[in-house]
Write a structure and sequence with these properties.
Largest sheet: none
Helix content: over 70%
Order of helices and strands: HHH
Protein name: Membrane protein
Distance between the termini: 63 Å
Shape: elongated
Keywords: Membrane, Transmembrane, Transmembrane helix
Number of strands: 0
């Protein structure tokens, strides 16, 4: 791995993070947009994790 690949890798990994951080400081509304996006994704992920699987649903339906 030569230094050109190393530098391009650093740029590819840290440029989006740097743009995000700068946009938070430059545009205060970007902070609330980021918080809302993160909150939406975490709530969706939590709902997906807590969904009962199909077997549990069948057992619950049969019990009634």
């Amino acid at each position: 791995m030569n230094w050109k690949e190393f530098i391009s890798g650093i740029i590819l990994y840290f440029l989006p993070i740097a743009i995000f951080v700068v946009s938070i400081f430059v545009i205060p509304n970007a902070l609330w947009v980021a918080i809302s996006i993160i909150w939406i994704f975490t709530s969706l992920f939590y709902k997906l994790l807590t969904l009962p699987d199909s077997q549990e649903r069948r057992e619950r339906n049969n019990s009634f």
